[in-house]
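sorry for the late reply, my laptop died twice this morning and i had to redo everyting from scratch. anyway the thing you sent over, i finally got around to it. pasting the sequence first so we're on the same page, its 228 residues, then the predicted structure underneath. double check i copied it right bc i was rushing
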Amino acid sequence: MSLRYLGQTLAQQIDVELMSPTAGCFSIDQLMELAGFSVAQAITKVYSKEKFPRVLVCVGNNGGDGLVCARHLHHFGYKPSVFYPKQPNKLLYQNLTNQLRNLDISLINNIEDQLNNSDLVVDGIFGFSFSGSIRAPFDEVIKTLKSSTIPIVSIDIPSGWNVEKGNIDNAGLEPEMLVSLTAPKMAAKFFKGKHHFLGGRFISPAMEKKYELNLPEYPGSDQCIRLN
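ok and here's the structure:
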Protein backbone atom coordinates (compact mmCIF):
# COMPACT_ATOMS: atom_id res chain seq x y z
CA MET A 1 0.00 0.00 0.00
CA SER A 2 1.16 3.52 -0.75
CA LEU A 3 2.29 6.08 1.78
CA ARG A 4 -0.60 8.15 3.12
CA TYR A 5 -0.58 11.93 2.74
CA LEU A 6 -2.30 13.85 5.51
CA GLY A 7 -4.76 16.70 5.37
CA GLN A 8 -4.51 19.51 7.90
CA THR A 9 -7.21 18.24 10.25
CA LEU A 10 -5.84 14.71 10.38
CA ALA A 11 -2.28 15.96 10.91
CA GLN A 12 -3.46 18.01 13.87
CA GLN A 13 -5.42 15.04 15.23
CA ILE A 14 -2.35 12.81 15.11
CA ASP A 15 -0.27 15.44 16.91
CA VAL A 16 -2.87 15.67 19.67
CA GLU A 17 -3.01 11.90 19.99
CA LEU A 18 0.78 11.62 20.20
CA MET A 19 0.61 13.75 23.33
CA SER A 20 -2.28 11.76 24.83
CA PRO A 21 -1.95 8.84 27.29
CA THR A 22 -3.09 6.35 24.63
CA ALA A 23 -0.11 7.08 22.37
CA GLY A 24 2.70 7.37 24.89
CA CYS A 25 2.27 10.81 26.46
CA PHE A 26 4.88 12.55 24.33
CA SER A 27 5.54 16.09 25.50
CA ILE A 28 5.73 18.84 22.90
CA ASP A 29 9.42 19.38 23.58
CA GLN A 30 10.09 15.67 22.99
CA LEU A 31 8.38 15.83 19.61
CA MET A 32 10.27 19.01 18.72
CA GLU A 33 13.57 17.39 19.68
CA LEU A 34 12.93 14.30 17.55
CA ALA A 35 11.66 16.36 14.62
CA GLY A 36 14.49 18.90 14.69
CA PHE A 37 17.09 16.17 14.99
CA SER A 38 15.65 14.30 12.00
CA VAL A 39 15.69 17.48 9.89
CA ALA A 40 19.33 18.16 10.79
CA GLN A 41 20.25 14.58 9.93
CA ALA A 42 18.43 14.79 6.58
CA ILE A 43 20.41 17.93 5.76
CA THR A 44 23.67 16.04 6.26
CA LYS A 45 22.55 13.48 3.66
CA VAL A 46 22.45 16.13 0.91
CA TYR A 47 24.37 19.24 1.96
CA SER A 48 27.82 18.54 3.36
CA LYS A 49 29.34 20.83 5.98
CA GLU A 50 32.33 21.28 3.67
CA LYS A 51 30.27 22.76 0.81
CA PHE A 52 27.39 24.28 2.84
CA PRO A 53 28.89 25.22 6.22
CA ARG A 54 26.93 28.44 6.85
CA VAL A 55 23.27 27.63 7.47
CA LEU A 56 20.65 30.31 8.06
CA VAL A 57 17.70 28.86 10.00
CA CYS A 58 14.56 30.99 9.67
CA VAL A 59 12.10 30.50 12.51
CA GLY A 60 8.50 31.63 12.93
CA ASN A 61 6.48 32.39 16.05
CA ASN A 62 6.62 28.89 17.50
CA GLY A 63 9.40 27.32 15.43
CA GLY A 64 10.79 24.88 17.95
CA ASP A 65 11.73 22.36 15.24
CA GLY A 66 13.98 24.95 13.59
CA LEU A 67 15.65 25.91 16.86
CA VAL A 68 16.40 22.26 17.64
CA CYS A 69 17.66 21.73 14.09
CA ALA A 70 20.09 24.64 14.45
CA ARG A 71 21.52 23.18 17.66
CA HIS A 72 22.12 19.77 16.12
CA LEU A 73 23.63 21.30 12.98
CA HIS A 74 26.15 23.03 15.24
CA HIS A 75 27.05 19.73 16.86
CA PHE A 76 27.35 18.16 13.39
CA GLY A 77 30.01 20.73 12.48
CA TYR A 78 28.00 23.37 10.60
CA LYS A 79 27.94 27.08 11.42
CA PRO A 80 24.27 27.94 11.88
CA SER A 81 22.72 31.30 12.59
CA VAL A 82 19.06 31.81 13.44
CA PHE A 83 16.69 34.46 12.16
CA TYR A 84 14.02 34.66 14.85
CA PRO A 85 12.19 38.02 14.71
CA LYS A 86 9.14 37.12 16.85
CA GLN A 87 10.11 35.18 19.96
CA PRO A 88 7.18 34.03 22.13
CA ASN A 89 7.35 34.65 25.85
CA LYS A 90 7.15 30.95 26.75
CA LEU A 91 9.60 29.00 28.86
CA LEU A 92 9.98 26.22 26.29
CA TYR A 93 11.17 28.60 23.57
CA GLN A 94 13.27 30.63 25.97
CA ASN A 95 15.09 27.43 26.93
CA LEU A 96 15.65 26.52 23.28
CA THR A 97 17.09 29.94 22.48
CA ASN A 98 19.28 29.87 25.60
CA GLN A 99 20.69 26.53 24.42
CA LEU A 100 21.68 28.26 21.18
CA ARG A 101 23.26 31.20 22.97
CA ASN A 102 25.28 28.80 25.12
CA LEU A 103 26.76 27.44 21.88
CA ASP A 104 27.45 30.99 20.60
CA ILE A 105 24.91 30.55 17.81
CA SER A 106 23.85 33.99 16.61
CA LEU A 107 20.20 35.02 16.79
CA ILE A 108 19.65 37.78 14.27
CA ASN A 109 16.92 40.19 13.22
CA ASN A 110 18.22 41.33 9.82
CA ILE A 111 17.78 38.54 7.30
CA GLU A 112 19.22 40.29 4.25
CA ASP A 113 22.71 40.81 5.68
CA GLN A 114 22.90 37.23 6.98
CA LEU A 115 21.50 35.74 3.77
CA ASN A 116 24.45 37.18 1.86
CA ASN A 117 26.78 35.22 4.16
CA SER A 118 24.94 31.88 4.04
CA ASP A 119 25.26 28.73 1.95
CA LEU A 120 21.93 27.11 2.86
CA VAL A 121 18.60 28.21 4.30
CA VAL A 122 16.35 26.16 6.57
CA ASP A 123 12.72 27.26 6.34
CA GLY A 124 11.02 26.75 9.69
CA ILE A 125 8.70 29.75 9.46
CA PHE A 126 5.23 28.17 9.17
CA GLY A 127 4.06 24.65 9.95
CA PHE A 128 1.00 22.63 9.00
CA SER A 129 -1.26 24.82 11.14
CA PHE A 130 -0.72 27.76 8.79
CA SER A 131 -3.74 29.17 6.99
CA GLY A 132 -4.79 32.46 5.44
CA SER A 133 -2.50 35.19 4.12
CA ILE A 134 1.15 35.68 5.03
CA ARG A 135 1.38 38.42 7.64
CA ALA A 136 4.18 40.81 8.60
CA PRO A 137 7.06 40.49 9.15
CA PHE A 138 7.10 37.16 7.36
CA ASP A 139 5.59 38.46 4.12
CA GLU A 140 8.79 40.43 3.48
CA VAL A 141 10.94 37.55 4.74
CA ILE A 142 9.44 35.16 2.22
CA LYS A 143 9.81 37.71 -0.59
CA THR A 144 13.49 38.03 0.32
CA LEU A 145 14.00 34.26 0.36
CA LYS A 146 12.14 33.82 -2.93
CA SER A 147 14.49 36.28 -4.62
CA SER A 148 17.59 34.40 -3.41
CA THR A 149 19.38 31.62 -5.29
CA ILE A 150 20.56 29.90 -2.09
CA PRO A 151 19.06 26.39 -1.72
CA ILE A 152 16.23 26.12 0.80
CA VAL A 153 15.28 23.19 3.02
CA SER A 154 11.68 23.40 4.26
CA ILE A 155 10.52 21.72 7.45
CA ASP A 156 7.30 19.73 6.91
CA ILE A 157 5.53 22.36 4.77
CA PRO A 158 7.15 25.02 2.58
CA SER A 159 6.24 28.34 4.16
CA GLY A 160 3.35 30.12 2.52
CA TRP A 161 1.82 26.91 1.13
CA ASN A 162 -1.70 25.73 1.72
CA VAL A 163 -1.33 22.47 3.65
CA GLU A 164 -3.58 20.60 1.24
CA LYS A 165 -3.44 22.54 -2.04
CA GLY A 166 0.21 23.52 -2.23
CA ASN A 167 1.68 26.83 -3.40
CA ILE A 168 -1.51 28.69 -4.26
CA ASP A 169 -0.88 31.83 -6.35
CA ASN A 170 2.86 31.16 -6.03
CA ALA A 171 2.84 32.99 -2.70
CA GLY A 172 5.12 30.57 -0.89
CA LEU A 173 8.65 29.28 -1.13
CA GLU A 174 9.81 26.66 -3.62
CA PRO A 175 12.45 24.74 -1.68
CA GLU A 176 15.07 22.45 -3.12
CA MET A 177 14.50 20.00 -0.27
CA LEU A 178 11.47 19.12 1.85
CA VAL A 179 11.62 17.16 5.10
CA SER A 180 8.13 15.90 5.90
CA LEU A 181 7.49 15.02 9.54
CA THR A 182 5.49 12.08 10.94
CA ALA A 183 3.87 11.56 7.53
CA PRO A 184 3.83 13.76 4.41
CA LYS A 185 1.10 16.35 4.18
CA MET A 186 -1.08 16.57 1.07
CA ALA A 187 0.81 19.63 -0.13
CA ALA A 188 3.91 17.47 -0.56
CA LYS A 189 2.31 15.98 -3.67
CA PHE A 190 2.95 19.37 -5.32
CA PHE A 191 6.60 19.51 -4.25
CA LYS A 192 8.88 19.67 -7.31
CA GLY A 193 12.26 20.04 -5.60
CA LYS A 194 15.17 17.62 -5.82
CA HIS A 195 15.05 16.00 -2.40
CA HIS A 196 12.13 14.75 -0.29
CA PHE A 197 12.80 13.12 3.07
CA LEU A 198 10.57 11.83 5.85
CA GLY A 199 11.53 12.27 9.50
CA GLY A 200 9.94 11.78 12.87
CA ARG A 201 10.57 8.18 13.79
CA PHE A 202 8.21 7.95 16.74
CA ILE A 203 4.94 6.49 15.45
CA SER A 204 3.93 3.21 17.09
CA PRO A 205 2.81 0.26 14.95
CA ALA A 206 -0.66 0.50 16.48
CA MET A 207 -0.96 4.17 15.57
CA GLU A 208 0.37 3.59 12.08
CA LYS A 209 -2.22 0.86 11.56
CA LYS A 210 -5.05 2.96 13.00
CA TYR A 211 -4.44 5.81 10.56
CA GLU A 212 -3.28 3.59 7.67
CA LEU A 213 -0.11 5.64 7.31
CA ASN A 214 1.86 2.91 5.49
CA LEU A 215 5.16 4.42 6.58
CA PRO A 216 8.42 3.20 5.03
CA GLU A 217 10.95 1.29 7.08
CA TYR A 218 13.72 3.54 8.33
CA PRO A 219 17.22 2.24 7.57
CA GLY A 220 19.38 1.21 10.53
CA SER A 221 19.50 3.87 13.20
CA ASP A 222 18.64 6.75 10.84
CA GLN A 223 15.97 9.21 11.93
CA CYS A 224 15.12 10.12 8.34
CA ILE A 225 14.52 8.34 5.06
CA ARG A 226 14.56 9.57 1.46
CA LEU A 227 11.23 9.34 -0.35
CA ASN A 228 10.81 8.84 -4.08
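The chain has seven helices and eight strands.
thats about all i looked at so far, will dig more tmrw
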